[in-house]
Amino acid sequence: MMPPNSRFWRIAAISVAACIASMPAEASLVDFGVTYSLTETSLGSTTEQFTLDITGINGASDTEKGRYGVQSFAFNLPTNFVSALAPTGFTYMAGGLSSSGTGGCDGTGNFFCFFANTTPSGPALAAGSSLDFVFTVTTSAAGSLSGYQPDFKINWVGTKNNYDHVSEAITPTAVPLPGAAWLLLWGLAGMGAMARLRRRPDSTRCPATL
């Protein structure tokens, strides 16, 4: 039989490893002090759900500030692209994002674009604000989104006439659900077992003599 203390530390190590494994790694792009993170979750062999998380808006590190919100954003097409489902409050449009004038989806290029149904207006978002945009991409062949590292463009509106459009590649971070959820549950169950073992009397000790 394994000594209680050895069993405790073994369960502790497995639990911590399971919890860490269930957490996605961070892969972010920083532009003019605003951080953009893209995560993806598989919904099937040909469909992925993406979440664009934007943080630090109008915060201390944001060198442009005065942002009201996002008017449009775009990604280049993956191999075997079929369709994209726009985030809530946005509409899908084929083509990219214009880098001239006021910007916005222009219907040209090897991109797909989402534009806001209502252009954001003032006041500016609170300092340190964050925004999340969830959308899905579907391809015609399994595995087409494997290794997809899209070029990313975004058009902000605010007190500044022209904000930087980023125009850089962004690496998606895979979130392996439901596997991650099972790992997290296993980690929590292990921690519960750890607590029970710590409360259990050590039966290996000799009884006190009178």
Give the topology:
Layout: H1 4-21, E1 28-31, E2 34-42, E3 47-57, E4 67-76, E5 81-85, E6 90-94, E7 111-116, E8 129-139, E9 151-158, E10 168-169, E11 173-174, H2 179-199
Parallel strand pairs: 2-11
Antiparallel strand pairs: 1-2, 2-3, 3-8, 4-7, 4-9, 5-8, 6-7, 9-10
What would you say about this model in short?
This protein is of the alpha+beta class and 210 residues long. 19% of the residues lie in helices and 35% in strands.
How many H/I helices?
Answer: 2
**CATH-derived architecture of the largest domain:** Sandwich
**How many distinct domains?**
2
- C-alpha Rg (nearest Å): 24 Å
**CATH fold descriptor of the largest domain:** Immunoglobulin-like
Helix-strand pattern: HEEEEEEEEEEEH
Broad shape: globular
Give the strand content: 25-35%
Number of extended strands? 11
Report mean pLDDT, rounded to a whole number. 83
Q: Strand count, sense and closure of the main sheet?
A: 6 strands, mixed
Low-confidence stretches: 16-25
Give the CATH class of the largest domain.
Mainly Beta
Oligomeric state of shown chains: single chain
Tell me the span between the first and last alpha carbons: 29 Å
Q: Structural class, from helix and strand content?
A: alpha+beta
Question: Residue share in helices?
Answer: 10-25%
